[in-house]
Amino acid sequence: MKSENSKNVPMVVIRRLPRYYRYLGELLKQGVTRISSKSLSEKMGVTASQIRQDLNCFGGFGQQGYGYKIENLYYEIGEILGLSRGYKTVIVGAGNLGRALANHAGFEKRGFRLMALFDNDEAVIGKKIHGLTIQPMDHLEEFFEKEGADIAILAVPKSSVKEVADRLVALGIKGLWNFSYTDIDVPEHVAVENVHLTDSLMTLAYKLTKEEMGSKE
Amino acid sequence: MKSENSKNVPMVVIRRLPRYYRYLGELLKQGVTRISSKSLSEKMGVTASQIRQDLNCFGGFGQQGYGYKIENLYYEIGEILGLSRGYKTVIVGAGNLGRALANHAGFEKRGFRLMALFDNDEAVIGKKIHGLTIQPMDHLEEFFEKEGADIAILAVPKSSVKEVADRLVALGIKGLWNFSYTDIDVPEHVAVENVHLTDSLMTLAYKLTKEEMGSKE
DNA sequence: TAGATTGTTAATCGATTAACAATC
DNA sequence: TAGATTGTTAATCGATTAACAATC
């Protein structure tokens, strides 16, 4: 058993945890109770070595000669990620994307609590989405005083994301999930995770392009 | 100048190209015409070495003693990614997310052509989104016969993604942009790019959790 | 020309895989 | 116990950074 103080786990390992979590959840749903790194590796298309190395960054979750108890491992990964912490989440920018994200089933299932939506467009303010009324941006400060929030989902246009991010940082936000087509610059203690959709689509385009080149030569 | 046949550029380099493209586009908009790897590296928070190494996977785009002509480099990266190929794109699954993606401004600006939306929910079929009428899934085969498509955006629930993906592969799709909360299994010649939103949110949660742990100890 | 900056090689760093002793 | 599989160390592989000769 390693120290709880998982100080320097490389980010590349962290980014694999949600995928493990996903596969383990699936197995659990199928009623499977234990699994070896070898058979999990075959399902996931990675090496068993990598799975064991990754998990051992956090502690000895397995049992020699037996493998891993799926329920336990699933729970532990959830804890590492902080899914039981019930992070309070707000959506800033209730356009098409913001509203779609509000209705995204997965987030609340994974323990995130959607508390409010904000926008400055009169056309959407007052609309009810996923049981919540879209509030004007002016209410942001008051909301943070009363309720507070851990995570803000940034679904605003590129042009306003800088200003909005600064405002949220001033209000004490802990993490920003950024969907705008630009990187944002925040103090080091604020966590940022970017979802650059256009970047991802361009990467897909590259793969097609490469495939086409390959077949022509 | 290296060979055009950019066969073995590591994926990790490819994934950085859209970000270069983004920064270069921004500079271009600001009227900047040339840049050195050093000053670009400062803007982007990466090393100048990495920029030069990355770009040299594709050819000598720069000029010693001068740097890179932004317009030229921007164009070249666009070509590498295949942005001028006008990839025909369809959205399968016109729920909240699918409809939001249809309205996403960035894609058409980057050369992707949205041709059609499909869904099997009577409640949305016939609705007009972004100038296109949502069609029933039955029309898929006919559409591919008449028009064809390169990329399908998969915004269907996890439960049907496997079936939908198989169907699209049978129709000759070249790339799948997968938004469902599951990995998909397709023949090797079909490109897949996953956008696992929940995975990304969990990664963000980890960062918050780590931050909190750190401040408590 | 002198200064600047690339393209590219070599050195370093980090991540993945292989191997195996420990042990359930 | 014997077989299986982990945890962990060592070996390999790949990616990043540093350095510098080439050259604009």
Measured by DSSP, the beta-strand proportion of chain A falls in 15-25%
Instruction: Categorize the overall geometry of chain A.
Output: globular
The overall pLDDT average of chain A reads 94
Biggest sheet record of chain A: 7 strands, mixed
Annotation, overall tally of beta strands of chain A? 10
Question: Structural class, from secondary structure content of chain A?
Answer: alpha/beta
Number of helical regions of chain A: 10
Describe the structure.
- The structure is a homodimer of 217-residue chains.
- The first copy, chain A, is of the alpha/beta class and 217 residues long.
- Chain A has two domains: 76 residues, Arc Repressor Mutant, subunit A (Orthogonal Bundle); 111 residues, 3-Layer(aba) Sandwich (Rossmann fold), CATH 3.40.50.
- In chain A, 45% of the residues lie in helices and 18% in strands.
- Chain A is built from ten helices and ten strands.
- Chain A has a seven-stranded mixed sheet with strand order 6-7-5-4-8-9-10, with helices on both faces. In chain A, strands 1-3-2 form a three-stranded antiparallel sheet.
- The radius of gyration of chain A is 21 Å and the shape is globular.
